[in-house]
Every structure is written in structure tokens, then in C-alpha cells.
Amino acid sequence: METYKFKTNINCGNCVRAVTPHLNKLEGVQEWKVDTENPDKVLEVKADAADAQTIKSTVEKAGFQAEQL
């Protein structure tokens, strides 16, 4: 299983709720969380089949920015 980290602009509970359905339906993602307390709003994704580019494009499709760390 891989762990990916992204700097995002997901900065509040409403933002997390907006991205939740997109990340939850992504194949291969086991768990994910956003540290909204971190200045970089770090999204951490544990996945066994999804790759970094797929996760990034899913977050962007939800209307947010994601830059892999």
C-alpha cells in the first residue's frame, strides 16, 4: 500500500464534505484524511491501486487544488 501526500486548498469542514464523495468512490483508496490545521492543508491518501495522478485529478475534479509533496 502506498501513502501519498498532497498540498491542497481544502481548508474547512465544508470543503472536506465536498471532496468526500469523490475520494470515497475512487477505486483503490483505502483511507484518506485532510489536516486542515496544517498551513499546507495536507491531504494524506493510503491507496493500494490508485496512483498519485489519479488522486490529484479526482481532487481537482471536485474543485480543489492538489500538489503532490
From TrEMBL:
Domain HMA: 1-67
Gene3D superfamilies: 3.30.70.100
InterPro entries in UniProt: HMA_dom (IPR006121), HMA_dom_sf (IPR036163)
UniProt-listed PROSITE patterns: HMA_2 (PS50846)
A GO molecular-function annotation: metal ion binding
Protein name: HMA domain-containing protein
Species for this entry: Pontibacter korlensis
